[in-house]
Amino acid sequence: MSAAQSCAELAIRAVADDVRPASDWLAQSCEAHGVPDTQILRLDLCLNEALANVIAHGGEQALANPVRLRLNVTCDGLTHQAIVTVCDSGPPFDTTSVQPGALPLTLDDAEPGGLGLLMIRNLSDSLSYWYDDGHNELAFGVHWADEAG
Amino acid sequence: MPIEFQEISDGLRRIIISGRLDIPGTAEIETRFAAFAAASNLRVVLDLTGVNFLGSIGIRSIIVNAKAVKQRGGRMVLMVGDNAAVAETLNSTGLGALIPILNDNAAAEAAALA
Asked: What is the pLDDT of residue A3?
């Protein structure tokens, strides 16, 4: 059986001011395609972390070019999937290859940073990365069954 | 992005944050958050029941202020009520092991004063 598929796209600037509009676009696009609220929140958190990484670490090339966002929603029988792809122009950086550091044991040891990648890993059901034609493409997805929400 | 505080008793303060703790939301409250948490020996219940989005930048802000409160001789605890999404985010990032997370006000106040 082939999967039914729908898609939405948006281009934003790699600046903090465009993060909230990106979240709004994601929520509206997901709602239009029947993605449950709990899954929208997971995707929104991942998107926020991915964009924060691009803004903070993408360098001049990432900041000077649009960040392209793509949402794909598919349904194959009773299983649904929503995947967000974030495409930026920064230097190659494979998010999936970075091993999260050990969690701190005390508040004194806690460093206020490095949680974004951990959150993307924890919140997504699928995560992939590729570098193509000068662009990082990070894709994170969530799955849900028809009645699970 | 609303943030406010209430004096529960002498030296015990509830700081209430609601809305989205994403990049712009955290930027909007972080100066007031630091100011509200700045006092010696202050016990703080950080009420997150009205937060509907907690990104890593928001968690970072909580860590920074919890450490600052501790360094001034105080203690911060988190009150999440029935906000399962925020509780899950806090626990999945390990913050639950560092700062007490409580579900009701009385328990949160007792933990802050412990």
From this structure: 65
Nearest to A19 among B22, B60, B98 (CB): B22
> Which of A24, A51, A115 is best to mutate for the B interface (most B CBs within 10 A)?
A115
Cα–Cα distance between A149 and A117 in angstroms, integer? Answer: 25
CATH 3.90.600.10 fits B3-113, yes or no: no
pTM of the full predicted structure? Answer: 0.90
Confidence of residue B66 (pLDDT cuts 50, 70, 90): very high
Q: Looking at chain B, which residue has its C-alpha nearest residue A115? A: B56
Structural domain boundaries of chain B? 3-113
Q: Taking residues B94-108, report their average pLDDT.
A: 93
Domains and CATH numbers, chain A: 4-145 (3.30.565.10)
**Prediction ipTM score:** 0.86
